[in-house]
Amino acid sequence: MFAPKRILVPTDFSSYSDNALRHAIDMARQYRATVYLLHVIDEHIQQCAADYCLSDTVMTEIEHESMVTSNDKLHQQVTRVSGNSQDVEIIPYLKRGIPFDEILKEQEEKTIDLIVIASHGRTGIRRILIGSVAEKITRNASCPVMLVRN
After folding, report:
1. 142 lies in which domain range?
2. pLDDT at 43 > cutoff 90
3. Which of 3, 23, 145, 146 is the most exposed place for a label (fewest CB within 10 A)?
4. Which residues contact 133 (CB under 8 A, 6 or more apart)?
């Protein structure tokens, strides 16, 4: 019988991610699992646009502020979705990089048993042009992936 002990939930702080986290928490309660809540800050911040460029100092400030804000949002999401429930261990953390790459790295490093990820429901040309982190994870993960449709 499949009984995950380490569940990874990637989040972009959307209501879709909240829903995926709720599903992961329900499963974690049932199997006494730990939930790892991961937000990846995309490393591709555009420093220049047309003839205007931000200084390295400003870029460093933006990156720092992004880390602080994202950390706050992670903790708010945990409180919003789980309440003050102490029956499931939820470990929120941040990474910098390309989202799907970092998610797959974390899956390997933490020997994750299950990834629970939200689908944003894009179809047609929007999905092709924008790409889908969930789709890339589903295709490339070495553990089961639960796709929560919204």
Report:
1. 6-148
2. no
3. 3
4. 10, 99, 100, 103, 117
